[in-house]
Amino acid sequence: MRIGELAKRAGTTTRALRFYESEGLLEAQRTSNGYREYDEHDLRLVREIQSLQAVGLSLQDTRPFVACLRAGHESGDSCADSREVYRRRLAEVDACLERLGTVREFLLARLAFQDPCVVPEEIQCTS
To answer: Which of 34, 33, 44, 32 minimizes the C-alpha distance to 6?
Structure first.
């Protein structure tokens, strides 16, 4: 299939596909007249990239998953490097949730404060 068809089937743009190619995530075969040609495996790679980015992984984070699929694995999750990306991102999410929990507790405490017009000393600014 040509680049336009791949873009349509993947629900993306030809520009995005060219970008993936420039980043080494997608490799097009070239016809004798220079057109890019893709197959179902390429569609699978693009969908893998899209699904990972949809849950917040960066394009760089998708590399091990793409490599895993290119190596012939059924799933991009099958390889150790891919699982390490999941572990790292999970640690980042856990840290973010912890920070949000602290902010939530602070906000709840402020809402529970008796006189909303008085700023407690511990948060007053001194000039």
So the answer is: 44
The DSSP element (H or E) to which 69 belongs, if any, is helix 63-70
Specify the DSSP element, H or E, that contains 37.
strand 36-37
CA atoms within 13 A on the CB side of 2: 5
- pTM comes to 0.78
Mean pLDDT, the chain, as a whole number? Answer: 91
Closest CA to 111 of 120, 98, 121: 120
Is the pLDDT at 40 greater than 60? The verdict is yes
Tokens of 37: 């040609």
Helices 40-54 & 63-70, crossing angle to 10 degrees?
Answer: 150
Cα(124)–Cα(122) distance, integer angstroms: 6
